[in-house]
Design a protein that fits this description.
By secondary structure, the chain is α+β, with helices and mostly antiparallel strands. The chain has helices spanning about 20-70, 105-120, 155-160; strands at about 125-130, 135-145, 165-170.
């Protein structure tokens, strides 16, 4: 019995070369880097959406305070952008400010505190047109610093740098 051997024409490749492995690792690393970037953007957009929800709730809250005490609606015109200067959250929290819910001025002070404590760089403004006899048209604007496009959240918020975002609602009382 004779075994016939084929002449040695070419060698077949039987594995991966080092270059192929390095290219595969590079593609994998770029994919993982892209996923990490998407996760960072997801966190920022989630934070932005949370701020929008808080602004909506705060605007509705001040409108509800006005509806509950229509005789003192004009007092809420004290809520201007300038009135938020120096407002800080007390040690006991903002709810400690408005313990006497019957006082309109305490409600205004508590709402200012809520805006400042719940929104980064938060301020508000209330504009009232009309009279009690004809009905009031109230415009509530809540403004805050939105850091969706910021490079470093802590640095941007500390400096107050970022895009100023506003939520405005107009209602008839």
């Amino acid at each position: 019995m004779t075994i016939r051997r084929q002449p040695h024409l070419s060698r077949r490749q039987s594995g991966f070369s080092l270059i192929e492995v390095l290219i595969a690792l590079l593609v994998l690393a770029l994919g993982l880097l892209g996923l990490a970037f998407l996760q960072v953007l997801n966190v920022r957009y989630t934070s932005s959406a949370e701020n929008r929800t808080m602004a909506t709730n705060l605007a509705s809250e001040v409108l509800d305070m006005m509806r509950s005490n229509p005789r003192h609606v004009v007092v809420y015109q004290r809520l201007t952008q300038a009135s938020f200067a120096g407002v800080t959250e007390p040690v006991g929290g903002c709810s400690a400010i408005g313990e006497n819910a019957g006082s309109v001025l305490q409600n205004i002070a508590r709402w200012r505190c809520d805006v400042v404590s719940q929104l980064p760089g938060g301020t508000g403004n209330v504009q009232i047109q009309g009279t009690q006899a004809t009905g009031y048209i109230v415009t509530v604007t809540v403004t805050w610093v939105d850091d969706v496009g910021a490079d470093d959240d802590e640095v941007q918020n500390a400096r107050g740098i970022g895009q100023r975002t506003s939520f405005q609602v107009v209602s008839t009382l």
